[in-house]
Design a protein that fits this description.
Elements (H helix, E strand, L loop, with lengths): L9 H13 L6 E5 L5 H11 L7 E5 L5 H7 L8 H4 L4 E5 L6 H13 L1 E2 L8 E2 L3 E6 L3 H6 L5 H7 L2 E5 L9 H16 L8 H9 L5 H15 L6
Parallel strand pairs: 1-6, 1-7, 2-3, 3-6
Antiparallel strand pairs: 4-5
């Protein structure tokens, strides 16, 4: 229900153009944006736009993956490996800047060879997987600071998409408000008709540090406990 690319800003237009442009291509995509701006949604739409990608869309939360978990879940045996399970699909490395230097080296080889040797195997397994990465940090700056591998940066930075924060595209706020209200009305069995002017004015003036995710959560909380969104 919430996976549509709604909005009227230039950022939303860029997202749609990117989906059309790279959907059927095997190009690696790098998506920049603050938390909550829609990086995962954009990646998923690129995956869905590729008619040749019949496999799953797999999200890997890099910030939550230690080197040990990386070995077990990405490079484990064929029955457990996330990567081989994503055959003919897409792997989305969310917040790739959070990977350790050791993990970065392994991911670099994976992207370069499009193959991996699983634990206990003697031969390489060829991969038919598309890779999309995201970051909420400036990777080029991290490269200069020695915190991110330069070769990995250039490997993933083939096509780049930058998602502006919600505070810089306020024209999208009313669209999201109405879209989420309709969705949560359906979900919660409500018939809330709309927002008062006070609410509209407040939403447009608020800074939204959590971006679209925060706006969605605010509308859902209000929808659950209100008969009319007027305060």
């Amino acid at each position: 229900k919430f996976d549509e690319l709604v909005g009227r800003s230039f950022t939303v237009k860029k997202m749609k153009d990117m989906v059309r442009m790279v959907g059927d291509l095997p190009t690696t995509l790098l998506i920049y944006g603050e938390s909550g701006t829609g990086k995962e949604l954009s990646a998923k739409k690129v995956h869905e736009a590729n008619e040749f990608r019949k496999g799953p869309f797999v999200v890997i939360n890099c910030a939550a993956m230690s080197d040990q978990i990386l070995e077990e879940e990405l490079f484990g045996n064929s029955d457990k490996s996330i990567i081989t399970g994503a055959h003919e699909g897409t792997i989305f490395f969310d917040d790739i800047s959070a990977f350790s230097p050791s993990a970065q080296a392994k991911i670099l080889r994976l992207l370069e060879t499009r193959s991996l040797r699983l634990q206990g195997e003697t031969s390489e397994t060829e991969l038919d997987v598309r890779f999309i990465c995201s970051s909420n940090k400036d990777l080029e700056k991290l490269v200069t600071e020695g915190l991110f591998r330069e070769d990995l940066y250039y490997r993933i930075n083939v096509v780049q998409l930058f998602l502006e924060p919600l505070r810089d595209r306020i024209e999208d706020i009313p669209v999201f408000m109405e879209y989420f209200l309709e969705a949560f009305n359906d979900q919660h069995g409500k018939q809330i008709q709309g927002f008062s002017k006070v609410v509209y004015d407040y939403f447009l003036k608020y800074d939204w540090p959590g971006n679209v995710r925060e706006l969605r959560n605010v509308v859902e909380r209000a929808d659950r406990k209100s008969t009319r969104l007027n305060s």
